[in-house]
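Q: How would the C-alpha cells look for this protein?
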Amino acid sequence: MDQVTRGWINGFLGVLIFSGSLPATRAAVADFDPLFLTGSRAVIAALLAGLLLLAFREKRPQQTDLLPLIVVALGVVVGFPLLTALALTHVTAAHSIVFIGLLPLSTALFGVLRGAERPKPAFWLFSGLGSALVAGFALKDGITASPTGDMLMLAAILVCGLGYAEGARLSRRLGGWQVISWALVLALPAMALVTLATWPQTLSAAGPSAWLGLAYVSVFSMLIGFIFWYRGLAQGGIAGVGQLQLLQPFLGLTLAASLLGETVSPAMLAVTLAVIACVAGAKRFSR
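A: Here is the predicted structure in C-alpha cell form.
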C-alpha cells in the first residue's frame, strides 16, 4: 500500500470521527454554555494529550514551530469549536452539517497558500461545484431563519480550513498526533481560564446526552480524530484528502437524524448526495 492510499484511509477515518462532532456539540449546548463547552473540551483533550507526550517522551517543538502551532490552536482548538457551539444555539445540527461541505474548498485554498500544493484546474472545478451546491442549499430560501447561525458557521469553516492546512504542513515534520497534542497543550492555560470563568452554578442540571456530547467532542473530536486526519493530509496531500470532508455531511446528517431526532429534508439529502459525487472528480485531479 503506497503512502497516498494510506493517506486517504487515514483521512477517511478522521472524517468518520469528525462526523459525530456537530450532533454531539448540539446535544452538549442544550445544557452547557457554549463558552464552557469550548473551554472544557479543550482542557480535557489537552490533559490527555499531555499524558501522551509524556508517555512517549516527545521532544519539545522548535522555536520556529511555535507560531504555526498557535495558528493550529486558534483554528481547531479555539475557533472552530467556539464558533460552531455558538452557531448551534441558533441552527440545528442537520442544517449546520451541510456547511461542512465547504470545508474541502477552504482546506484546499489554505493548502495552496500554506502547503505550496498545486492541484490541477479540473480539481477546482469539482471542489468549487461541491461548495456551490452547499452554498446554494444554504441560500435557497434567501436569508435563512438564522443569519447569525449561518455567519458563525461560515467563519468556523474559514478558521478550520486554516488550522487543517497548517497542521498538515507541520505533521510532515512533527507527526500527526504530536501536532494536535502540542497545539492543545499550548492552548491549555487560556482554555482553563475560560472553563473556570464560565463554570456553571450546578453541573447536576446537565442531562446524560449533554455529558455524552461533551465526552465525545473532548476525546474524539479534539484528539483522536486529528491523529488520523493530520496523518492523512500529510500523506495524501492537503487539497486531495481534504475532499473527503465532502462525505462528512452525509455521515453527520445520518447521525443527526438517528441520535437527535432532527428532520432531514429531501433537499438536504439531495444536496449532500450531489456533493459527495464531486469527491471522485476532485480526487482524480488533486495532483
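Residues 3-284 form one domain.

The radius of gyration is 18 Å.

Upvote if useful.
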